[in-house]
UniProtKB/TrEMBL annotation, chain A:
Keywords: Phosphoprotein. It holds the Pfam family RsbRD_N. InterPro entries: Bact_StressResp_Reg, RsbRD_N_dom, STAS_dom, STAS_dom_sf. This is RsbT co-antagonist protein RsbR. SUPFAM superfamilies: SpoIIaa-like.
Automatic annotation (TrEMBL), chain B:
It comes from the Bacteria. Residues 34-128 form the Histidine kinase/HSP90-like ATPase domain. The lineage of its organism: Bacteria, Bacillati, Actinomycetota, Actinomycetes, Streptosporangiales. This is Serine/threonine-protein kinase RsbT. Its EC number is 2.7.11.1. One of its GO terms (molecular function) is protein serine/threonine kinase activity. The keyword Lipid biosynthesis does not apply. Coiled coil: none annotated. Pfam families: HATPase_c.
């Protein structure tokens, strides 16, 4: 593949090309990135690209001379993905060069050069998708952590408000966190609140039962609270039995039960604290 | 009525089936209790399709019977099938590690329940819940 004098002419008009290119890109980014930063990014990419073509890069984007171009594009697409730019906005960053070249070089035959740009556009797109997937995976992991706080309600009473779907992965995190908190705080009572769990099926029930049994092995009593009327009726129809595990309609009821089991005199505690 | 077909190949798909069933149940004006019952039954059956059937699909649709609206959900897999249906429906029996309440429980949660299965030919379960 020969590129004629395209590379040469690009070099001659390099600064004009970068300016045109930046304008195309700036149109799609609509001022969400500083112009100076975009211009530097594009100038580096163009310089690396022309350098690689001068070194006989050919049309294969995986070829050795293109290593620097690839590195720059990986950086660009990762940045764009993390900053939340759309695939289109990211792709324009590369494909915009075609528009700039057509405008600046006019009627020169640029078919070969365009094919190279297309290849790199696709390459950027692939990297962008990978980066986005990484972002999603990270978020899912963070959410798993976020969604399971264990809060201390009283000396010796901790609560675990569950929100959302309790699948196997989350149930595992929940159980670990609860058991660890029981040890760390020396609590003997744990309240698992399921107000925020939309559906209690046998799998969710099984996870709850296992958590309660594990907590018991460590000497702590669990109370399950937040059982709404529709959940209660569903549990009965399913035939799930919670055995001798205490269950309550609201977190407040569960706290009252825990406090009475601990023999706490709330009024005396309040008087003690305000003194 | 157009039926929606949803694939079941992972835990995330079970959640998706649940959400789609809930949306239809709300549309058919099922009461909150009935919505929850149907969603829970769908959750059990979708999980069975995944765990015991090795994955499959759910087809859900709104149905009408005179003036009554309802939701029908069909779960299908091409898994090993069930040899003894009566045993599989019995509470407390499980061939896996579950509580053994899913299939029988799902039957109690809905108004109509039909199961077809043969060893080696997969399993199809159809459930319907009507608005009161």
């Amino acid at each position: 593949m020969t590129f004629g004098n395209v590379v040469e002419r690009c070099r001659q008009n390099e600064s004009e090309l970068v300016r045109e290119w930046r304008e195309v890109v700036a149109r799609s980014l609509a001022g969400r990135l500083p112009a100076a930063l975009v211009e530097k990014e594009l100038r580096d990419i163009l310089d690396a690209l022309l350098g690689a073509l001068e070194a006989g890069g050919g049309t294969d984007p995986q070829a050795e001379p293109y290593a620097e171009v690839r590195a720059l594009l990986v950086e660009l697409s990762r940045d764009r993905a993390q900053q939340g730019f759309s695939p289109r906005e990211t792709a324009v960053s590369v494909f915009g060069l075609k528009e700039a070249v057509s405008k600046v070089l006019g009627d020169t035959d640029v078919t070969g050069f365009f094919r190279v740009i297309d290849e790199f556009g696709l390459y950027t797109f692939e990297t962008y998708t990978k980066a986005r997937e990484e972002v999603i995976t990270n978020q899912a992991e963070q959410l798993l952590e976020l969604a399971t706080p264990v809060v201390k309600l009283w000396d010796g009473v901790v609560a675990l408000p569950l929100v959302g779907t309790l699948d196997s992965a989350r149930a595992q995190v929940v159980m670990e966190k609860l058991l660890q908190t029981l040890v760390d705080t020396g609590s003997e009572h744990a309240i698992i609140d399921i107000t925020g769990v939309p559906a209690v099926d046998t799998q969710v029930a099984q996870h709850l039962l296992r958590t309660v049994v594990a907590a018991r092995l460590m000497g702590a009593e669990c109370i399950i609270s937040g059982i709404r009327p529709q959940i209660a009726q569903t549990i009965v129809a399913l035939g799930i039995e919670f055995g001798d595990i205490a269950t309550k309609a609201s977190l407040a009821d569960a706290l009252m039960l825990a406090l009475s089991r601990l023999d706490v005199d709330v009024n005396a505690e309040i008087a003690k604290r305000s003194r | 009525m157009t039926a929606q077909e949803l694939p079941i190949h992972g835990d995330a798909d079970v959640v998706r089936v649940r959400q789609a069933v809930r949306a239809l149940a709300i549309e058919a004006k099922l009461s909150l209790v009935d919505q929850t019952k149907l969603v829970t039954a769908a959750s059990e059956l979708a999980r069975n399709t995944l765990t015991y059937g090795g994955g499959g699909s759910a087809t859900i649709e709104r149905v009408e019977n005179g003036t009554r609206a309802g939701v029908r959900a069909l779960f299908h897999d091409d898994g090993p099938g069930i040899a003894d249906l009566a045993l599989a429906l019995r509470d407390g029996y499980t061939s896996g590690g579950g509580l053994g309440l899913g299939l029988g429980g799902a039957k109690r949660l809905v108004d109509a329940f039909e199961i077809r299965s043969e060893p080696g030919r997969g399993t199809t379960v159809t459930v319907t819940k009507w608005a009161r």
